Amino acid sequence: MKINHIPQKIIRAMIVIAVTLILSFLIAPIVPPAVDWTTTFRPATLTLLSGESPYGRFYFVHAPWTLVMLAPLALLPEAVGRVMLIFCSLISYAFIAHRLKAKPIAIVFLLLSPLVMHMLLNGNMDWIASLGFILPPQFGLFFISIKPQIGIAVAPFWLVETWRQGGWKLVVKTFAPFTIILLLSFIIFGFWPLYSFKVIEVWYNASLWPMSIPVGLALLVASIRKRRIEYAMAASPCLSPYALFYSWTGALLAIVSSTPETIAAVVGLWILIAIRFFP
Question: For residue range 205-236, what is the model confidence (pLDDT) as tens digits?
Fold first, then answer.
């Protein structure tokens, strides 16, 4: 195929990927390791690629398709994959916010929030789960299930919306692929969600559950009544017994379309950090 026959978008995407990869190799030596990437996600991905189960080791408790998505990064040298992870996280959050109709200034504040900074520092995957918010339900279910504390309330919102649009036939068509893959994963790996119960009692759990249950239920009902996914996004961490500090990024994304509220929330988060660590 001649280059002039290649769509310009593909050419630009290839250039961006190439530049990002080159920068990752250059920056890798000066970027500190990220605990979650180094001790959990990368070794778990390599274990799955070798044909073994990642569960019961590496503190891995997430859906197995998480590792499929991470395979291209895991195959790179560890430090290079870590830098690529930072680029992917920032680009993804910026893209999600843009799709949620955020203005540039709100996107900047989102990326500079302590929630995003904390996730980058740890090398976690909340950005992948957050991509589910802007995808059609049949695809988004695979993403939000990676981190239920990010999007657990979005699933019933989608269920009701799908029913409204096409009845039970559309519900089956939309939810069947995810349900089938989920059941197959249980056959292959066992009932892997049980592993997640081991992390609920850790000291760094930032969930407000069970005190946040009334707020979460109220937001979920509001999302269904008003037909607004943003309320369900904000409800999710409120309904989860386990949520790390950066897991609340989904709630911040719920208001990112409103610049004043986003700025106020990010400033408030930095005040919280100042009070917590610099009394």
Answer: 788 888 999 999 999 999 999 999 999 999 99
Measured in whole angstroms, how far is the alpha carbon of residue 186 from the centre of its chain? Answer: 22
Rounded to 10 degrees, the C-alpha dihedral 263/269/271/275 comes to 180
The token pair at 238 is: 């409120």
Q: What share of residues in the chain are helix, strand, coil (percent, to 5)? A: 75, 0, 25
From 93, 86, 38, 36, select the one nearest 61 (Cα to Cα).
36
SS (H, E, C) 148-213: HHHHCCHHHHHHHHHHHHHHHHHHHHHHHHHHHHHHHHHHHHCCHHHHHHHHCCCCCCCCCCCCCH
10 Å CB burial of residue 142 (0-12, 13-18, 19+) is buried
What pTM value is reported for the model?
0.89
Instruction: Decide if pLDDT at 3 tops 50.
Output: no
